[in-house]
Amino acid sequence: MSYHVSDANSYLVITGGGIPDVKIVKKAWVMPWQKYSKISISPFDFEITLQAMTIEKLQFSLPAVFTIGPDDHLASLGKYAKILTGRTATENAKSQPTSTGRNHVQDIVKGIIEGETRVIVSGMTMEEIFKERQVFKTKVIENVQSELNQFGLRIYNANVKELQDTAGSEYFKFLSRKAHEGASNQAKVDVANAMMIGNIG
Prior knowledge:
Order of helices and strands: EEEEEEEHHHHEEH
Shape: elongated
Number of strands: 9
Helix content: 40-55%
C-alpha cells in the first residue's frame, strides 16, 4: 500500500480491485491490487488547416487553432482518463491499454474538427460562407464542442482564421475585391449625397 498525491494541474486515476470503473482523485492510498496513473489537465493547442468543399463542389482552406483540454469536472475527467489511457470500463487493471497519450486524443480531436466542418460546409454555398463568416465560424465551434463533450473535453479558446482559396482558385479573392469595390462605390454615393444636401441647404 502506498500514498500518492497529484500535482496542482493533474489528477490520479486509480483502477483495480474495489473500483468498478475508474476513480479520479487528487490524493489517495493505492492498494497492492490497484494501479494508478497521473493525467494532466493542462490545455493544449491544436492547429489544423482543413480542406473543405462547398455544395457547388468548390474547395477552400480553413486554417484554425483550437486550445482544448479536459473539462475540470469528475464526470468529464473520467471520460478523458479513459481515452487518454485507452482503457474502457470493462477492462481490469491488468489489461493493456489499446492506445495511449495525447497523440491519441489529438487524433480524435482532428477527426471531430474535420468531420463537423465538412458536414457544415457541404450544405452551404461559397458566397454564404463568405458573407456569413462569423456565423459559420460560430457554428463550427459549437458543433465541435458538442462532439467533444462525450470525451470529457472542452474548447478553451478557438481562433478560426480567414478562409483561404486553395491552389488555382481565386474565389475568395474575387469576393473580397467585389465587397471592397461595393463599399468604395457606396462611400462615393454617400459623399455625393452629403454634398448635394449641403448645397441645397
